[in-house]
Batch of 3 targets.
Target 1
Amino acid sequence: MAQVQSVERSLSILEYLADEPNGASIAQLSAEMGLAKSTIHRLLQTLMVRGYIQQDEQTGYYQLGVQCLTLASHFLGQLDIRSVAKENLKQLSQDAEEVVHLCILDQDEAVYIDKVESKQTLRMYSQVGKRAMLHCTGVGKALLIGYEASQWEQLAENKGFPKFTDTTITNLEQLKEEIGNIQAQGYAIDEQEHEKGIRCIAAPILDAEGKVVAAISIAGPIERMTKSRVQTDLVPVIRKQSQLISQKLGYRKGVEK
């Protein structure tokens, strides 16, 4: 039982450090986890030996180590959807001249598993491995069309509807209306709902059984991604690539309208 507890505590340390880009001290970890500093130190030393943790020589803070990246690389390499969609993402980025993402659903969150950068400047939240909430992102809402009504209610209970900007969806009724629109048109729009000044269009990826297994998106600043450009230029290209990826996965009906 003690071994299981040690594993759980070690994983908690790794998860905490994943959200701390500058690292954390033993005192900080001790306070956060409610464990003695000696216990934290012992766990950190074990993780350091295995390469999962490293210590910054200047600050003395502990950070994630290279072994975490190694595991992440192996995991991403095993995701068939990532390799299947690779060429389509490149083509979509070329067509749109904006940053392109591929996301999957995990524990009621969208996880970025691939990204093709744009030659144009863009600062935004996205990064491979990062997570995003479903109610306020284009990819999140595109993934949500695979949910049943009861799952939307469970999502509301588990995650709530945190407000990030003035246009963020903040209740279940708004979300249901939005999902209906997405199902009808085949794509989702993030109208500066997570980051002010960033507009995003996303489309679902379906497998052979018609299940939503991923979503792709195009994101950019509102100055470049105007509403007119989104509708005229970007809707056709993202729907085309989402359909092509879906077909590669065995879906034969195209993205449902």
Target 2
Amino acid sequence: MISKVLIANRGEIAVRIIRACRDLHIQSVAIYTKPDEDCLHVKIASEAKCIGEDAIKGYLDAKIIIQTAKECGADAIHPGYGFLSENYEFAKMVEDAGLIFVGPKSQVIKNMGNKNIARELMQKNGIPVVPGTKVLNECKEEEIKEFAKKIGYPVILKASGG
């Protein structure tokens, strides 16, 4: 059971998480950088901790965030969205620190963050996927053109990791 959550985000998303925590009778810890010290999420959280001077940099410092969570007795970290929410290395660091990452397991984030791996996992589990080629960087340009003619235009080329 989670009793205290550090919110590794700011602004509206942090406010929403704090309100959800309040509804669930869970203590909330807002983190903030100096420019955000008067923001609503800082004022309404159960407690608030300053993590630095730089407006954005602190929200991306995984080590400081995890250290702050441990120092204040949080047992979970909620990343919100953006910032570190899709960073599997951050989720892994949280897990390795013995804390709960509120979101997918680090391995799931890693797998779903790579379209080639995600596509392969979906196919292995019988989940339909749209027509596509094998890994593009293993295809010759002519193969890609032939495949595009076969499935019909328009086609989308996407980076596997983006």
Target 3
Amino acid sequence: MTPTDTPQEFGTLPDGKTVKAIRLRGGGLSATLLTFGARVQDLRLDGADHPLVLGADTLEPYLDPMIYHGAIVGRFANRIADGRFTLDGETYRTDPNEGKRQTLHGGADGTAAHLWEIREVSADSATLSLTLPDGHMGFPGALTILATHSLPGDGTLAIEITATTDVPTPCSLAHHGYFTLADGRPVSEQELWIDADRYLPVDDRLIPVPEAPAPVADTRFDFRTPRRIGTDGIDHNFCLNETPGDMRKVVRVTADNGLSLEVETDQPGLQVYDANSQPKLTGLGGRAYGAFAGLALETQAWPDAVNRPNFPDAILRPGETYRHRVHYRFARD
């Protein structure tokens, strides 16, 4: 990838609009962003001969089977039980796009399915914007979002998201990249550390059970001491330790080829999905993707927080600014 300040055409949406690709380079990384979904389409580390993320060479896969891959998802990342919530005494019904039962990642027309506007581009940074209208997917409020992807140094992909609203609304936006440190090797073989003493057990809809959160101690979700991810399947929220709002290291992933990934964030939750149910797909450079091909590490609010008074608040109100920072730092031993 050759970095350039001039976005290039990547493909055309069914409505005829053009999707642009923005190529960035800095701090030992090179990245390609797409205006469709504000997604990271490709990410490379100097000295490594393979992509660090799952992606596609053309636009078409991003319209359906890879709609969330690398995208900013929301306006409420993760799930809302039964596609409904009550806010300030009024009940809202949101698009039940997952199994016709719950709302996932803001509904079928969430932020991952939108063409974002380019606001600023430099050699190592790009800022994109999107406004979701009042009533979109059943959510109240016109929500204006800015997402900045940058490569500030030390092998880091930094993402900062801000949002404002004109009426109270749920707001939790997340980067939904699937990371792969060992080309063609399952993430189940990699070692994972998570700074979380609690997690959210879920029911068969992947909605947190009434007694959540629960301790990770003596469960398969205890990654406080690094260990292999394994093949039991993970699609759960980890309740991160320390104070939300403060940047702190929350994750480390290591592969036996010497590559590692550390994650820092200011968010209260981390959804870990090991792609255990991902279908067979054709990815970057013709690579074959299947189950356990990548690891999603989505820093965010806790799922279904809008229906759980005991969860950290996820309501954005007029006059406030939603802020979300996450750093993905790659290194070679």
